[in-house]
User: What shape does this take?
Amino acid sequence: MITVDINEYAEGAVLLTGLDEAIIGITDEFGNGRRMLYSKDKIITILQERDGMTYSEAEEFFDYNIIGGFFGEQNPVFLDMTLTPKKNDDGDWEYHLE
Assistant: This one.
């Protein structure tokens, strides 16, 4: 395993306070540099466990205060679901939730 200094590798990327455990990657966007990739599911879980919110409260907080916020040019991005592409019997692509 390689340790990455995200402050150096993704210089200028917005880090969300108290949500380090929800970071799952770093994205690269032309013109906007690197951005932190967070797992929505992990954020919801953190809000439930840390702040005692119900799932509905945590999701509402996420929608209004986190995904609805603008934190800077290198605003974080959020993974909502992970899909696995597979070809069906007709040779067309289908996408399945993991």
Notes: The CA atoms of residues 10 and 34 lie 5 Å apart. The beta strands are 23-29, 33-39, 77-79, 83-87, 93-97. The two ends are 24 Å apart (CA to CA). The longest strand covers residues 23-29.
